[in-house]
Amino acid sequence: MPEAVGIFGGSGLYQLLEGAEEVPVRTPYGDPSDSLWVGQVAGRPVVFMPRHGRGHTLPPHRINFRANLFAMRQAGVRRVLAPCAVGSLRREIAPGDVVIPDQFVDRTWGRVDTYWEGPVVRHLSAADPYCPELAEAAARAALAEGARVHRGQTLVVIQGPRFSTRAESRWFSGQGWGVVGMTGYPEVVLARELGLCYSAIAMATDYDAGLEGEPGVAPVTHERVLQVFAANLERVRRILFRLVEELPERAGCGCAGGQPLPELAAP
Questions:
Q1: CATH number for 214
Q2: What's this model's pTM, rounded to 2 decimal places?
């Protein structure tokens, strides 16, 4: 039986699977953002959850990331795909482009970002936070669906729900970072603590606070984010379905080497 794939829906992606079974769930870490929606794509089990809730009721800083990832892991998920909307910090990354990041920078605060709170302590190596096998497969699927794809980029994650000031955007761009979003952290590190493969699939929807020296590029608005994402939603779906279909039945990377939580070891 192929390993189950989990998909978190970001802004604008609140439904994915036709005929999926809704499975309400609770976890030792509280309630997740929504029910799990369990179905199949090309014979492979797929578990979907809208990250912000199906009515976009949860702002980024209120998402219970620990419950979301734990619910996926309880449902048998071993690989996680994380589509999300991001702002571009570089001219060459245009709205509508797909970015598969290989690094992140955390600029959030106050978010619970580990399962290991004592008395047992583990320290996650986050030098290479994203699954290389999953990222490569995601890039191939996006290219096959006609998207412009950028690799080797850094995703800077801000607290939200506000967008960046012009000064912050200049700072991020000046550091060489590629895109900015609000939900990529701590989702990725929690997935890796659970031994899950994880890849972000970021859709650029705007140029953040504009581009330096180009006053005609307007700063981002939430309405603009949803508008661009909606215009590309069908492509995002095709990328996800192609990716799920083309994944090997078992992962060939080393992401599953994390320490199991006591809650997961229980019968």
A1: 3.40.50.1580
A2: 0.90
